[in-house]
């Protein structure tokens, strides 16, 4: 029957599409192209009145296949994309944008710019207003390419300037690119969103021409406007700008404090900790200890010598003065159950010593202070504290005490003076451990 025929036809199309997807997942691009051809042909024979919306499927899948197919060429890709532009008015600007991306990835910058310029001049009744956001993206990426051309002209001008040669045509071209880039980049960053690349380029333009107030305003808006999504990079850009222009430490700390709240493992936490430690305010020095402990909670920091050096230095200062030991205690209490295996295992002791002597030194100092030598004495003498089970002693001995013992022994064996000093320091301040451990 006619109804049964339609059902079978619909089923065959769905099966064909699943074959395409399966081939793509297995990176069988030739096979995927063949099935997509069959799928397209089946659509041409589909006389049902039901809307299937196949054009976007063909566009998405076809683009992916052509990008990976070993025999595809730029000419074929361009031809395919031009056909896709005519299939759906609603997706015209999206297709144009993807076409520009593909051209850029293949180094065809002028062609991409031309493509974006043509898309910007596109008009189609009410669709123009509906696709306002896509149009702003088109303009923004064109502005990005104007920035690229501006940057090239700037380089040429600076090189010629060193030789005492001034090329007015280059300077005029450079200013022309600046005006076009600035207009489009400024528009896109008004819309709430993540516009990292556009913001960086716009700020670079403003800074070059000495408009520092406008640049600061842009970065403040990008970082602090509640309409924009939380974005760590916004605070990074603001911090870098403030640092370049010699702003006060209060402003720098304020920018990094928010970054710490969002991403405590960010690489700028070293700078943050250093500034906080130099502060005369106790509250900021306390925050500095919290910052460096939090950073070392992450695996990416396990072998960061600077981070361990920052922690070792602050812990050492606190131990010598015997003030604020409660700071260390508070940080250590939430970590003592997992940091030993995470940072101070037997394996890491040997590995760190073999690969990085400085790292071993800093970690051994921290391990010696946080874990002390009282545990070791108690184990050998058969003494236990009421607050801990024997299993807890056993765990710490093998995962923690070994690190300090192994590294300090290797350092002394290699006749390295600082390791002998390290060992004496930890032995001298061993009672501090009892106060930290409670």
Automatic annotation (TrEMBL):
Keywords: Membrane, Transmembrane, Transmembrane helix. GO terms for cellular component: RNA polymerase I transcription regulator complex. It holds the Pfam family TAF1_subA. InterPro entries: SL1/TIF-IB_Component (IPR052669), TAF1A (IPR039495). The keyword Chloroplast does not apply. The chain crosses the membrane at residues 383-404. The keyword Isomerase does not apply. GO terms for biological process: transcription by RNA polymerase I. PANTHER family: TATA BOX-BINDING PROTEIN ASSOCIATED FACTOR RNA POLYMERASE I SUBUNIT A, TATA BOX-BINDING PROTEIN-ASSOCIATED FACTOR RNA POLYMERASE I SUBUNIT A. This is TAF1A polymerase. It comes from Cochlearius cochlearius.
């Amino acid at each position: 029957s006619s109804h049964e025929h339609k059902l079978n036809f619909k089923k065959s199309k769905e099966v064909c599409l699943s074959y395409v997807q399966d081939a793509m997942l297995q990176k069988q691009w030739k096979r995927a192209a063949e099935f997509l051809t069959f799928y397209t042909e089946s659509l041409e024979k589909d006389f049902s009145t039901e809307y299937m919306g196949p054009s976007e499927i063909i566009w998405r899948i076809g683009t992916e296949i052509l990008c990976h197919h070993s025999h595809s060429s730029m000419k074929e890709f361009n031809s395919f994309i031009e056909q896709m532009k005519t299939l759906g008015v609603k997706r015209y600007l999206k297709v144009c944008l993807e076409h520009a991306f593909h051209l850029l990835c293949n180094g065809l910058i002028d062609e991409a710019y031309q493509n974006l310029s043509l898309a910007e001049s596109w008009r189609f009744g009410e669709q123009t207003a509906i696709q306002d956001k896509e149009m702003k993206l088109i303009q923004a990426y064109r502005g990005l390419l104007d920035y690229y051309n501006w940057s090239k002209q700037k380089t040429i001008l600076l090189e010629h300037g060193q030789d005492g040669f001034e090329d007015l045509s280059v300077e005029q071209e450079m200013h022309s690119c600046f005006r076009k880039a600035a207009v489009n980049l400024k528009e896109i960053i008004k819309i709430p969103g993540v516009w990292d690349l556009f913001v960086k380029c716009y700020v670079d333009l403003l800074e070059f021409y000495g408009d520092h107030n406008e640049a600061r305003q842009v970065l403040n808006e990008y970082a602090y406007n509640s309409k924009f999504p939380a974005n760590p990079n916004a605070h990074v850009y603001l911090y870098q700008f403030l640092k370049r222009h010699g702003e006060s430490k209060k402003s720098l700390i304020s920018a990094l404090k928010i970054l710490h709240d969002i991403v405590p493992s960010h690489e700028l936490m070293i700078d943050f900790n250093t500034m906080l430690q130099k502060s005369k305010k106790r509250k900021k020095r306390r925050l500095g200890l919290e910052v460096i402990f939090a950073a070392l909670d992450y695996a990416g920091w396990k072998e960061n010598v600077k981070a361990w050096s920052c922690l070792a230095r602050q812990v050492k200062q606190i131990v010598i003065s015997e003030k604020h030991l409660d700071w260390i205690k508070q940080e250590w209490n939430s970590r003592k159950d997992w940091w030993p295996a995470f940072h101070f295992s037997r394996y890491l002791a040997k590995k760190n010593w073999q690969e990085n002597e400085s790292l071993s030194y800093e970690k051994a100092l921290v391990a010696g202070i946080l874990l002390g030598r009282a545990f070791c004495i108690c184990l050998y003498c058969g003494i236990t504290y009421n607050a801990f089970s024997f299993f807890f002693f056993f765990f710490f001995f093998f995962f923690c005490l070994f690190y300090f013992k192994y590294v300090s022994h290797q350092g002394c064996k290699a006749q390295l003076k600082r390791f002998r000093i390290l060992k004496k320091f930890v032995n001298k301040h061993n009672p501090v451990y009892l106060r930290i451990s409670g």
